[in-house]
Specification:
There is one protein chain. This protein is an alpha+beta fold and 177 residues long. The chain has a single domain, classed as Gcn5-related N-acetyltransferase (GNAT) (Aminopeptidase, 3-Layer(aba) Sandwich), CATH 3.40.630.30. Helices cover 27% and strands 32% of the residues. The protein has helices spanning 15-29, 46-54, 112-126, 141-149; strands at 5-9, 58-63, 66-74, 95-103, 131-136, 153-162, 166-176. The protein starts with a strand and ends with a strand.
């Protein structure tokens, strides 16, 4: 068990650590029933992770000195989201979007994802956001349950195209703040 979880922004020199963490997550979940369909070199890319670090958008969850979770929090909604029936009208400066939430596969079942989501909610509130949004594969039941337990509301199921998944259905969720 990880007590306490410390959530902090990744530092500029930690791009390699972030890439290694996401690589371990990809390897650990490949073929699992709730595989997020991320692929090395496709999603997330080193460039994407590096940009998130440079823009102060990547956050680590640490258990002691070890990275055990990570997430990206920014204002970028993915292509295809604009037509969704969002419950909270929120322009780009009024919303935050949770991307790339991941937990070390060896630490699954310890409540780390829920604590990272709670940290994201706190950060969104600190930044004055009206809503926190995300998308998730419907078959990723542990993630869906986590988001719903934390108050996120299902908005719509849309078929979206991403390089790592191709065109597949994603569920959009939103948490009014």
């Amino acid at each position: 068990m990880c007590e306490p979880l410390r959530v902090r922004r990744a530092e500029q020199a930690e791009t390699d650590a972030a890439c290694a963490f996401y690589g371990a997550v990809i390897d650990g979940f490949a073929g699992a029933p709730f595989d997020p369909l991320w692929r090395r070199g496709v999603y997330p890319t080193r460039e994407m992770i590096s940009r998130a670090v440079e823009n102060d958008e990547l956050y680590f969850g640490e258990c002691g000195e070890k990275i055990c979770a990570a997430m990206v929090l920014n204002r970028t909604q993915d292509d295809g989201w604009e037509g969704a029936p969002w419950a909270v009208p929120a322009g780009p400066d009024e919303r935050l979007v949770l991307h790339l939430l991941a937990v070390d596969p060896a630490r699954q079942g310890q409540g780390l994802a829920r604590r990272m989501v709670r940290a994201a909610v706190g950060l969104a509130r600190e930044q004055g956001a009206k809503a926190l949004r995300l998308d998730v594969l419907p078959k990723n039941l542990p993630a869906v349950r986590c988001y719903e337990r934390e108050g996120f509301r299902f908005i719509a199921r849309l078929t979206l195209f991403y390089e790592d998944t191709g065109s597949v259905p994603f569920d959009l969720y939103e948490l009014p703040l």
